[in-house]
């Protein structure tokens, strides 16, 4: 597993502040998003999902968004299951990065626009860590309902035994859980080390490639998390926000593309593919390479984690040898017949000419 070991929490970056209404747990819902942004955001320009779409758009893959719910807005229409209301707007924003389809006049698209989004609502306030029991229940629900990828763009500090058990259950269902590599706050520790081998931990970066302020090691890779554009709730428009949590859906969308194009890979193999194909400069997510790279350990149909199976060479079969001998005799006989016919074709005309001469005499 590739992991960013350097302590990057202190590398501050300028963030586009998330709208305060994103955390409106008890207040009024976020207003409908109506402003459509025509330009291509820098994150989509960097990852270039359109280059991958001739190969796959993520069809047949389900990505669970364990968050505040997901509104079935136009760019997600027909592909959202589960909780289809989102007062805070956070889950809809995350889901858009994963799977928003192209739309007329919009420069923004998700990475896997044919993937299905499973909305699992666990909180109304995305700015605070949800209770561990709710988060664990959400992950279990996503795994039980067949999610291939589970995006958790919420804080996971102090991940206790209950959350660990839920992530282990997701692993047993072969679901890849993607979480943010967040810096500690208010005395909380960083990501529970017991989770590191079971999840894909994603740090955030800005357009210059610098880690954003709330990202911390260890992270498996970096993905865009500053000045991010995505779908807003209850309308066709877009919003902008920033923070490490928004790196999660970029990695989850890339994982959906990988799972669609390489359906025989396990969740652990998908994680490895995403990490080993990351750009060497900072371990930055490279969605195109993650889908198209040829990894030596994946050659053949055997999963990389399993031991090689013994190869049994079958002994020659006598009946096959007899068949070859019979075939050889048959060919020889056919050649002999053809040769005889050729001789007759030469001798018969001569015999006829001799016969005619004898009669003339």
Task: Summarize this structure as a short list of keywords or feature phrases.
Rossmann fold, 12% strand, alpha/beta, single chain, disordered N terminus, disordered C terminus, 7-stranded parallel beta sheet, two-stranded antiparallel sheet, 8 helices, 2 domains, 361 residues, globular
Describe the structure.
The protein has 361 residues and is α/β, with parallel strands linked by helices. It has 2 domains: 20-298, Peptidase S8/S53 domain (Rossmann fold, 3-Layer(aba) Sandwich); 317-349. 32% of the residues lie in helices and 12% in strands. It contains 8 helices and 9 strands. The strands form 2 sheets. It has a 7-stranded parallel β-sheet with strand order 2-3-1-4-5-6-7, with helices on both faces. The protein has a two-stranded antiparallel sheet with strand order 8-9. A hairpin with a 6-residue loop joins β8 (228-231) and β9 (238-241). The protein is globular and about 45 Å long. It starts with 41 loop residues before the first helix and ends with a helix.
Low-confidence stretches: 1-26, 301-329, 350-361
Shape: globular
Query: What would the CATH topology of the largest domain be?
Result: Rossmann fold
* Percent of residues in β-strands: 5-15%
End-to-end separation: 104 Å
Number of domains: 2
CATH superfamily of the largest domain: Peptidase S8/S53 domain
Overall SS class: alpha/beta
Rg, alpha carbons: 32 Å
> How many DSSP E strands?
9
Please outline the major beta sheet: 7 strands, parallel
CATH class of the largest domain: Alpha Beta
The helix tally amounts to: 8
**Proper CATH architecture of the largest domain:** 3-Layer(aba) Sandwich
Tell me the helix content.
25-40%
In N-to-C order, the SSE pattern is HEEHEHEHEEEEEHHHH
Which strand order do you get reading across the main beta sheet?
A: 2-3-1-4-5-6-7
Average pLDDT rating: 80
